[in-house]
Design goal:
The complex is a heterodimer of chains A (about 120) and B (about 110). With about 120 residues, chain A is mostly beta strands. Chain A is built from no helices and eleven strands. Classes of the chains: A mainly beta (about 120), B mainly beta (about 110).
Chain lengths: ~120, ~110
């Protein structure tokens, strides 16, 4: 899992609640990414950030928000607007900002369940 | 948007056999990467092959890339029970900025 930590490992959310998933990296990587993985599926990109104080929407950004105030941190908030948030969430980072030829280093993931 | 599609979706073999997984994609790529995911864990990078390369080796792994057919294959030789995992291909498309596009994965089960 490299130098990326995600917390918590398991998270339970009640209907209507916002929850924040933590992602921290000590690799001094420029770019960071959030993915969602549903059972038996591949990864879908939620948001990504190539530099501090900047981020872009991925393919499924609705109902999610992020911030990138520090290079090493990229928290993801799952808002009440996300109607089906139960999934496995993965954070990743790449050394370069473009990510073009870089491999992605992944955290261990957070499993979010809506009660 | 899904770019890579893996085939087969699931593969079950005996220890010692070779495992071959295929990945097809739709548009021009800069590179193609293979990742492994153990159940309930994050992904681990295995190998990257660039669009101007045809074959690459890493230990028991062999990856081929055929850009004319827009396809890649991952071969694991002399498989072990510890190779049991899901394997994903991911492509870096020129049109997608800083994004990797992941396929849905092949679930490999190696029986001892």
């Amino acid at each position: 899992d490299g130098g990326i930590t995600q917390s918590p490992k398991y998270l339970f959310r009640k209907e209507g609640q916002n929850v924040t998933l933590s992602c921290e990296q000590n690799l001094n990587h420029d770019a960071m990414y959030w993915y969602r993985q549903d059972p038996g599926q591949g990864l879908r990109l939620i948001y990504y950030s190539q530099i501090v104080n900047d981020f872009q929407k991925g393919d499924i950004a609705e109902g999610y928000s992020v911030s990138r105030e520090k290079k090493e941190s990229f928290p993801l908030t799952v808002t009440s607007a996300q109607k089906n948030p139960t999934a496995f969430y993965l954070c990743a980072s790449t050394r370069g900002a473009s990510g073009r030829t870089d491999t992605q280093y992944f955290g261990p993931g957070t499993r979010l369940t809506v009660l | 948007s899904q770019q890579g599609e893996e085939d087969p979706q699931a593969l079950s073999i005996q220890e010692g056999e070779n495992a071959t997984m295929n990945c097809s994609y739709k548009t021009s790529i800069n590179n193609l990467q293979w990742y492994r995911q153990n159940s309930g864990r994050g992904l681990v990078h295995l190998i990257l092959i660039r669009s101007n390369e045809r074959e690459k080796h890493s230990g028991r792994l062999r990856v081929t890339l055929d850009t004319s057919k827009k396809s890649s294959s991952l071969l694991i030789t002399a498989s072990r029970a510890a190779d049991t995992a899901s394997y994903f291909c991911a492509t870096f498309e020129f049109s997608q900025g800083g994004k990797l596009i992941f396929g849905q994965g092949t679930e490999l089960s190696v029986k001892p």
